[in-house]
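Notebook entry, structure prediction.
Reason for the run: the old model in the group folder had no record of what sequence produced it. Starting over properly, with the input documented here first.
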Amino acid sequence: MTPKVVIFGEMLWDMLPSGKQPGGAPMNVAIHLKNFGGAPILISRIGSDDLGEELMHYLESQGLPTQLVQTGTTHLTGIVKVNLSDKTEVTYKIVQPVAWDYIHLTPENIELVTQADVFLYGSLAARGAQSKETLLHLLSVAKLKVFDVNLRPPYFDQPAIEELLYRADIVKLNENELSLIATWYGLEDDFEAQIKDLIARFQLQMVCVTLGANGAIVVHQDRVYRQHGFPVEVQDTIGSGDSFLAMFLHLFLEGVSIPEALCKACGVGALVATHQGATPTISEQMLVDFLKIKHQTSC
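New structure, fully documented this time:
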């Protein structure tokens, strides 16, 4: 039976020089997870405006359920102004306040999270008091909790991130986020030591760190797994980390070994970086062919 994954947080439009693209890390993960054969459902909020209506149509076109996407009348659908001057280090200006800052707690989303196998959340959705209150309540009833750290200055601080880390079972973050968090505790500049400290400090089951072009590293049950990166010609890195997380989580939940899940997740993340926008469709055959080209005949 396919594990049920509930994803909480922002859905929005990335405003790119080439035009607008659907975005928001939680929605990106949900779309990729659905493409990979998962069963995600998104809890979010849009405005009662044209941009919100377009996002709902987009979710429906991707085969995602929309019954837990709320519609508000007092705040607009979220937008993000994206700076692509550095294709490998995209920066964002995130408008506030917007609809997803006001996700309400409802009996329906409490029931859904209680019954789900996995609850995935990020830090950005906790920037607003209303959504944070809802998130913390849902975390109190969730089973396996996956925290996609996703730091976006200035919308976080140490106490807020620590509060979310303490509630997590599995944490995914990138190397810059790990380095920043490590400075809070005066840790040495060594990825493995930093990860192991996080696991011990917050009683985590697993930590996964993406290393950009250098691949990724996972620490689970005192074992360290490393996967090299796959060189590609980058269009932009928007959504690469989200696709990585979706593939890794999907395979891990299906019982695939961590080395294989890590290899395929790195492959998908690299493939997404060869496209513009966050949610290009990456088929299984595309991944198989890509890995063959990269002389990684099997993961």
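Summary: The chain has ten helices and 13 strands.
The old model has been moved to the deprecated folder.
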